[in-house]
Amino acid sequence: MNNWPNPFIEQRADPFILRHLSHYYFIASVPESDRPEIRRAVTIEGLRDPDPAAVRRPPQTPPI
């Protein structure tokens, strides 16, 4: 039996894990709440290694 740490990945809001074909995907919001990030790994444990990709970054200046 695996003993999963709680939290699995620290300081991420609204986490979601999905398995598609041969990869696991972790999707969550970062602490600044200005962008979601996605992590991909072959194993679920590999999701803990920090190699995230930002899905969207907010504009540098607010819209007028």
In short:
The chain is mainly β and 64 residues long.
Task: Report on the biggest sheet.
Answer: 4 strands, antiparallel
Low-confidence segments, given as residue ranges, are: none
Molecular shape: elongated
Strand content: 35-45%
Output the radius of gyration: 14 Å
Total strands: 4
Oligomer: single chain
> Strand sequence of the main sheet, in spatial order?
1-2-3-4
Structural class: mainly beta
- The overall pLDDT, averaged over residues, is 81
What is the helical fraction, as a range of percent? under 10%
Distance between the termini: 54 Å
Report what the structure shows.
A hairpin with a 6-residue loop joins strand 2 and strand 3. The chain has a 4-stranded antiparallel sheet with strand order 1-2-3-4, with no helix packed on it. With 64 residues, it is mainly β. It has strands at 13-20, 23-29, 36-41, 53-54. The radius of gyration is 14 Å and the shape is elongated.
Throw out a few tags for this protein.
mainly beta, single chain, 64 residues, 4-stranded antiparallel sheet, 0% helix
List the helices and strands and how they pair.
Blueprint: E1 13-20, E2 23-29, E3 36-41, E4 53-54
Antiparallel strand pairs: 1-2, 2-3, 3-4
